[in-house]
């Protein structure tokens, strides 16, 4: 494996948690293995691995970008990751307020609904 893969897998585990990454790895097939490799090396091993901003801010940016682009499926996963990145509920709502102003109220509204549900589940399972 490459240095980007190893670094990416380490950061992916740090942010998303071992259980999530273990499930993703167990579900990997020959079909999606190239995609999994690409996100591990590219997203996690390159972008998330940069030391220019902390994981907390990367987490907030990711949630805002997912909401702004309407990619809602991954929002709960990244909300759960906030317990590992240090982004608070207050940080998340601030990011989503920006989404409302710059990308649209309906997108922010849906993302807030997902965040509220996920934070509640996290609290109930704590």
From TrEMBL:
Give a GO molecular function annotation for the protein: peroxiredoxin activity
Q: Which Pfam families match?
A: CMD
Q: Which domain of life is it from?
A: Bacteria
Which InterPro entries does this one have? 4CMD/NDH-1_regulator (IPR052512), AhpD-like (IPR029032), CMD-like (IPR003779), Decarb_PcaC (IPR012788)
Taking every annotated instance into account, which residue ranges of this chain make up the domain Carboxymuconolactone decarboxylase-like? 34-116
Under SUPFAM superfamilies, the record lists:
AhpD-like
Q: Which stretches are transmembrane?
A: none
Write the protein's name.
Answer: 4-carboxymuconolactone decarboxylase
